[in-house]
Design goal:
The protein contains eleven helices and twelve strands. It is of the alpha+beta class and 380 residues long. It has helices spanning 9-13, 37-42, 62-78, 91-105, 109-113, 167-193, 199-203, 206-209, 275-280, 336-354, 359-373, and strands at 51-53, 81-85, 126-129, 143-150, 211-219, 231-234, 240-245, 251-255, 258-261, 269-273, 290-292, 300-308. The chain has an eight-stranded mixed β-sheet with strand order 1-2-10-7-12-5-4-3. It has a single domain (9-326), classed as Sandwich (Jelly Rolls). The longest helix has 27 residues, at 167-193. Strand 8 (251-255) and strand 9 (258-261) form a beta hairpin. Helix 3 (62-78) crosses helix 6 (167-193) and helix 4 (91-105) packs across helix 6 (167-193). Bound molecules: 2-oxoglutaric acid (AKG) and fe (ii) ion. Residues 215, 217, 231, 236, 243, 245, 250-251, 290, 292, 302, 304, 380 line the site of 2-oxoglutaric acid. The site of 2-oxoglutaric acid (AKG) has 13 residues, from strand 5, strand 7, strand 11 and strand 12.
Length: 380
């Protein structure tokens, strides 16, 4: 069967259309708080995503380190997302990584198509756009490039961009730094949870099995940003997600019942607690709902690195040390693949209900195809 052809959002955006095709128009209930991102970003009032200064984590003074861990713990409990500053990754490396992604996306679409993924046949790495799932037909205003970046022996460098010529070198350098930072954060969070310092790192597979997957999100200019979403509301399935962007605002976090825009904090990396960590921590840490807005003026690019446990090798469930009689396990055991599958299944069901399609026979059919599909989906 020929691969399903995805329409690139970039080609739509540059075609001169004044209104967006109906597949990109979000349903009424999603259209709240989609005000102008640039004005929102300037506002001083309202809740602000916490900032963790990692220099304090390295202090010689145990009291300073302890205070920093307390802040990290609070941020992970209350928000499930935070900015990391003084994270130790050289600015020069980050700037080169961004430049490489921008250069790739500035190539003509025909050039990028040479790297197109084929989601239907399970080839999920490469250049892509969301395919309409047949439930709601709903699409997102973004194209992306997705590939595994760590461990290095699991990478398929043949599908990485060849332009710019330093793409592999700078991405490798960034991911090595990020892998070190992942260990640092996992050690601190383990201590915050009151378990052995290397508990989380070992639980999720350590250096050999914990995967870092890079997704460069490319959000073209949108003629009707008040009707579209770059990325629809979701929580990340990962353990942690690290996020950089080109300083164009767009990320919104659902905090205390309201959408809050993430400020552009220079030299910071934003980190999300994902579902995997929410499960391991028995719900102490939250995987926050978030989405990506688009705008009329500037292309937005973000670099998300998802730290994920292997798909089938590890059973995810609350760490036994955190389960007590008064705090029973809040999540039944599952593999990472099963977790993704259950999530897609729930979403499909919601879509079916929304579209008032007869539920029973369709649901069973979808469940079957989704079981096959769960291993082949590009995370958000
Ligand atoms: O672009 C962003 O800021 C968010 C992207 C995101 O949530 C994702 O890729 O999972
Ligand atoms: Fe996300």
């Amino acid at each position: 069967m020929a691969p399903a052809l995805a329409l690139r959002v970039e080609s739509l955006a540059t075609s001169g259309i004044q209104s967006i095709p109906k597949e990109y128009v979000r349903p009424e209930e999603e259209l709240s708080n989609m005000a102008n991102v640039f004005e929102e970003e300037k506002k001083k009032e309202g809740p602000q995503v916490p900032t963790i200064d990692l220099k304090e984590m390295e202090s010689e003074d145990e009291e300073v380190r302890e205070k920093c861990r307390e802040k990290l713990n609070k941020a992970a409990e209350e928000w499930g997302v935070m900015y990391l500053v003084n994270h130790g990754i050289p600015n020069e490396v980050i700037n080169r990584l961004k430049k490489a992604g921008e250069t790739f996306f500035s190539l003509p679409i025909e050039e990028k198509e040479k790297y197109a993924n084929d989601q239907g046949s399970g080839k999920i790495q490469g250049y892509g756009s969301k395919l309409a799932n047949n439930v709601s037909g709903q699409l997102e205003w973004e194209d992306y490039f997705f590939h595994l970046a760590f461990p290095e022996d699991k990478r398929d460098l043949s599908i990485w961009p060849k332009t710019p010529s330093d793409y592999i070198e700078v991405t490798t350098e960034y991911t090595r730094h990020l892998r070190g930072l992942t260990t640092k954060i996992l050690r601190a969070l383990s201590l915050c949870l009151g378990v052995e310092e290397d508990r989380l790192e070992k639980k999720v597979g350590g250096m050999e099995d914990l995967l870092l997957q890079l997704k460069i999100n490319y959000y073209p200019i949108c003629p009707q940003p008040e009707l579209a979403l770059g990325v629809e509301a979701h929580t990340d399935v990962s353990l942690l997600t690290f996020l950089l962007h080109n300083m164009v605002p767009g990320l919104q976090l659902f905090y205390e019942g309201k959408w809050v825009i993430a400020k552009c904090v220079p030299n910071s990396i934003l980190v999300h607690i994902g579902d995997t960590l929410e499960i391991l921590s028995n719900g102490k840490y939250k995987s926050i709902l978030h989405r990506g807005l688009v705008n009329k003026e500037k292309v937005r690019i973000s670099w998300a690195v998802f730290c994920e446990p292997p798909k089938d090798k590890i059973i995810l469930k609350p760490l036994p040390e955190l389960v007590t009689e008064t705090e029973p396990a809040k999540f039944p055991p599952r593999t990472f693949a099963q977790h993704i599958q259950q999530k897609i299944f729930r979403k499909t069901k919601e879509g079916l209900i929304r579209n008032t399609i007869q539920e029973e026979p369709q649901t069973i059919e979808h469940k079957q195809t989704l079981q096959e599909d769960s291993a082949k989906c590009v995370p958000q």
